[in-house]
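Hi all, long-time lurker, first post. I run a small reading group and we've been trying to get comfortable going from sequence to structure in the token notation. Rather than ask abstract questions, I figured I'd post a concrete chain and ask someone more experienced to write out its structure so we can walk through it together at our next meeting. Sequence below, copied exactly:
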Amino acid sequence: MDAVRLVELNAAYARIIDNERYEEWPGLFHDPCLYKVTTAENLATGLESGIIYADSRGMLEDRISALRQANIYERQRYRHIVGLPVVTTHSQDVAEVETSFLVVRIMRDGKMELFATGCYRDKVKPDANGALRFVERIVVCDGGRFDTLVAIPL
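-- Answer (accepted) --
Happy to help. Here is the structure in token form:
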């Protein structure tokens, strides 16, 4: 799989979230798909639970709808720094890819802090038009403590 296209997919993902264009986020995924936010400790101990879990594009859309209309959380936004993707396995049309990330949270008053670090563990394949989409994105956070609701996708 072309590394440049994987970089572009990750850049589009980060740009959509960082620019608060959340309604575009589900379009980066196939349907069905899996999106899960978990911790390195959970993975190491075989725990399947996630902080966020969605197994369809509809669930991703519902998450954004709730984010915009129902959830009450302190106003914030993110800025992603995304590493270079590494293809760990490639079979037929699906590539398994690991990419490190760092997310800075910016609060409404301008205060900035490191919010999350970790890696994306992805399964990626082209859609019918040849555009790369996530079949699966497991967000593995290095730490397991969040001081607030994880409302915005990581």
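A couple of things your group might point at:
The chain has three helices and seven strands.
Residues 3-141 form a domain with the Nuclear Transport Factor 2; Chain: A, fold (CATH 3.10.450.50).
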